[in-house]
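User: For documentation purposes, I need each entry recorded in a consistent format: the amino acid sequence on its own, followed directly by the corresponding structure tokens. There are two entries in this batch. Please keep commentary to a minimum and don't merge the entries.

Assistant: Recorded as requested. Entry 1:
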Amino acid sequence: MEGVGWIMTIIIGAIAGWIAEQIMKSDMGLMMNIILGIVGALVMNGILKALDVIPPGGWIWQCVVAVAGACLLIFLWRMIAGRRAA
């Protein structure tokens, strides 16, 4: 996450992971929420940079980006896990 420190990264990751968990109606624990939020933010920031879209700075925008990225990761995981089960 850009523009925030390590502690704020963990807090934003936890919040973003929890929000994504609620949106996607999945059941995960606190550690997985933190991981999803942080990795989701990294993935979504990478996608946005590849598209030459730079979101405004600040922790609120990073939280929005992290939620979108975490939802994307949950969606992709469900697609992969669904194919494996079939």
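Entry 2:
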Amino acid sequence: MMSAVIKNVTRAMAAFGLVAGVMAAMPGSARAAGDVHGCSEGQYCFYSEADFQGKKKEVRLQPYTCYKATVGWPDGSSSRPVGIVNNRTEISQLEGFDNDACSGRPYAHLRYREGVARISDRAKSFRVAPRCDIGSVCLYENKDFSGRRWQINPTHTNRCFHAGDDVWGHGFYNATRYTATFYRSVFCTMLPTTGQAPGSFGTFDEKVHLVKID
């Protein structure tokens, strides 16, 4: 497996102080359908130069795995990337962390079919995660994070939150800065799960319905 790489990933790039560009492949280009900046459908791509130029590395990064900010290029050399594209899948995002261990909450993320043309030095590591906005709690219909996705934006601690009576999911992502406890009932008093740390995501065998942050 390649030792892959990131420097900076985010959808709202200006909010994270990035000099970046996000856009799909231009109509009429010679690229294959589904390509973004020359990055094949189903891949993450890293570039050695700004504006998606220079050497390119296409990879399928694994969820739950932390990658440090170094890329092994096809010519055998290695360096930090300057550009990056997420063309993997609509249910995933690529997250940047300002530490080497992908610990805590990410400070930025890159959604499907988005790219960063020039990335900063802040990110030290990255990982693949299910799609969820920073500061939110997300529930997913299926264990592979596919199907329906519900996003909850807790405004207070020690309060029960849900996104509707029909919200029941096997997957979760706690993208808040607090510990999140999920409940397998219609009240936040019955059948609680183990508290899930900030920045954690995973699945439950039984569907969960409600969340409380502490």
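Summary note for entry 2:
The mean pLDDT is 82.
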